[in-house]
Automatic annotation (TrEMBL):
Belongs to the PPP1R37 family. This is Uncharacterized protein. Pfam families: LRR_6 (PF13516). InterPro entries: Leu-rich_rpt, LRR_dom_sf, PP1-Reg/Actin-Interact_Protein. Signal peptide: none annotated. Keywords: Leucine-rich repeat, Repeat.
Length: 377
């Protein structure tokens, strides 16, 4: 076969026949459909080819320079994971997917070593969907194996979506993940569904996520997080989180730990600085009504309005003293603010204005006394 510097589908057809690449007509038909695509940007195949065909396919694919995405669904990666090297070296791979594909120990080691060369990788998704029906008999992975593999992802500084589901990760893997997160400043979505993370693991993960200020979606469903673990997670949760999924964990009565995160009642400033963007924490039947109320408030598009509503609901007797130290022309602003946000609490609006006005005479007397002293009276 004559080597070429770059190879499109037409060139591939010229170097080998479809009859040579597949053993039955169904697979040949699939390859013919691939050959009809003029632009080769997403390589995906579910055919069962001979070992020789696979070798020749990846040999030619390795000469391409425009492949961006690789996807393997329900495949046995033992047959070709060691053949991905040239494909990765010659292309800027941005997306890699493996859903329900078998990965043994040697295969996962080889695959993660390959990731260290994917400098442009933005979306990595590996999952074992067998766990959805409770079958993990063909999963050879464990915490030690994954802890050794994860450091390879440190080179993927462009990562935006990282999905590692049903990989049997636990304490050692959480520490390894925590170490690589600071190198993924642009990470927007993290999905660790179906692993073995408990409270201590979550605390370790949270330490690493502090630098991920762009993180908006965090999925930790189907793990082993309990009430104590939830409290530790909330303490280190990035303030940028919009969607959090903690369903199917071991949380029972700890949901109220979200309250100071969503609406800190210690002061008006603390309430104003609380989280106003978190919209969900996963479907559960035992979340308290107070937490649900705060989550619903966060659906407001104008976050300054959301903050104001929380202040009015939490601080039923507003302390107006901080305003008394300023000029009296603040009164119209106070009235306007209360008029805007306290429609449902006219009693609060009137009492707050009354407190403000009640302090005015003392301020006037004080100012008058200063003026008299200046005049020598």
């Amino acid at each position: 076969m004559t080597p070429t510097k770059t190879l499109n589908v037409d060139a591939l057809a010229q170097t080998m026949s479809i009859d040579d690449m597949a053993e039955d007509e169904l697979n040949r038909g699939t390859l013919r459909l691939l050959g009809q695509q003029k632009t080769q940007r997403n390589m995906a195949t579910t055919v069962q080819c001979s070992e020789q065909s696979i070798d020749r396919f990846f040999e030619d694919l390795g000469r391409c320079c425009h492949v961006k995405k690789l996807r393997f669904d329900d495949a046995d990666l033992t047959e070709f994971v060691d053949k991905l090297g040239p494909v990765v070296t010659n292309n800027d791979i941005t997306n890699f997917f493996s859903d329900g594909s078998y990965l043994g120990v040697s295969e996962v080691n080889a695959l993660f070593n390959t990731f260290s060369d994917m400098k442009s990788l933005e979306h990595l998704e590996i999952s074992y969907d067998h766990y959805d029906i409770g079958d993990d008999s063909d999963n050879d992975l464990d915490d030690d194996i994954m802890a050794r593999c994860i450091p390879s992802l440190e080179a993927c500084t462009c990562m935006q979506r990282l999905i590692l589901k049903d990989m049997r990760m636990s304490s050692k893997s959480s520490a390894a993940l925590s170490a690589i997160f600071p190198h993924m400043a642009g990470l927007q979505e993290l999905d660790l569904t179906g692993n073995l993370f408990d409270g201590n693991c979550v605390q370790s993960l949270a330490r690493g996520l502090v630098e991920c200020r762009s993180l908006r979606t965090l999925n930790l469903s189907r793990n082993r997080i309990g009430d104590d673990g939830l409290a530790m997670l909330i303490q280190g949760l990035p303030t940028s989180i919009v969607s959090l999924d903690l369903s199917r964990n071991e949380i029972e009565t700890g949901w109220n730990a979200f309250l100071p995160f969503l609406c800190n009642p210690t002061s008006i400033n603390a309430t104003h600085g609380s989280n106003h963007i978190l919209l969900c924490v996963g479907y559960t039947a035992n979340i308290s009504r107070d937490v649900i109320t705060m989550l619903r408030l966060n659906f407001g598009k104008d976050k300054s309005h959301v903050a104001a509503k929380k202040i009015l609901q939490t601080h039923r007797h507003l302390d107006m003293r901080p305003l008394f130290d300023r000029e009296l022309d603040l009164l119209p602003r106070v009235v306007a603010w209360l008029e805007r946000f306290a429609d449902s609490r006219p009693d609060l609006k009137l009492s707050s204005i009354f407190d403000f006005v009640r302090a005015m005479p003392m301020k006037v007397v004080g100012e008058k006394g200063k003026e008299l002293r200046r005049n020598g009276l």
